[in-house]
Design brief:
- This protein is mainly alpha-helical.
- It has one domain.
- It is 81% helix and 0% strand.
- It contains nine helices and no strands.
- Helix 3 runs parallel beside helix 5.
- The chain starts with a helix and ends with a helix.
- It is a multi-pass membrane protein.
- This is GDT1 family protein.
- Belongs to the GDT1 family.
- InterPro entries: GDT1-like.
């Protein structure tokens, strides 16, 4: 349960102001059909984070506990720093036409935008740390949905009320604490 709850919280916070959250806003403004967009985000996230969680679980089979501890600790500290750098949506990440329909366009655009993103990397690290693939993927997926579904339905009204900088600072602090725990907690 701990892996699920921590994964949900970390990813929900990390997603605030992220490029995939901005993509959710762009898709909502462009297509104005929330259900296919939200379902597309869900499918893309399940596939993307399922693969990322598998990579995280696989890494633990090759690394001993001491190496894993240092890599995870350093990775969480790097994520803390990365959280302080705001994301911007690149123009080429916005879908040009709904060639695959709204759902298909959302799945493809969201999956590609999530590649190498903070939340995908966090999923790899969390799966490696907790060695609980299902709980981590379920948690990170829920975190993504908690951060993105309201954006699709409420749009920019929500983004004006959420102090993104504060959310980034809280997220950075959480990642820093997790990094320090991974590095210095008794084995």
């Amino acid at each position: 349960m701990e892996a699920f709850l921590i994964s949900t919280g970390i990813v929900a916070l990390a997603e605030m102001g992220d490029k995939t959250q901005l993509l959710s806003l762009v898709l909502a403004a462009r297509f104005r059909k929330p259900w296919p967009i939200v379902l597309g985000i869900l499918v893309a996230t399940l596939v993307n984070h399922g693969l990322a969680g598998a990579v995280g679980a696989w890494v633990t089979t090759f690394l001993g506990p001491q190496w894993l501890r240092w890599i995870l600790g350093g990775s969480f500290l790097a994520m803390a720093v990365w959280m302080l750098i705001p994301d911007k949506l690149d123009d080429d990440e916005t879908p040009s036409a709904p060639r695959f329909g709204i759902f298909g366009t959302t799945v493809v655009a969201f999956f590609l935008a999530e590649m190498g993103d903070k939340t995908q990397i966090a999923t790899v690290m969390l799966a490696a740390q907790y060695q609980a693939w299902f709980a981590v993927v379920a948690g990170t997926t829920l975190g993504m949905m908690l951060a993105n579904a309201p954006v699709v339905w409420l749009g920019d009204r929500l983004t004006r009320r959420v102090p993104i900088r504060l959310v980034h600072l809280v997220s950075a602090a959480i990642f820093a604490v997790l990094g320090l725990i991974a590095l210095f907690a008794p084995a």
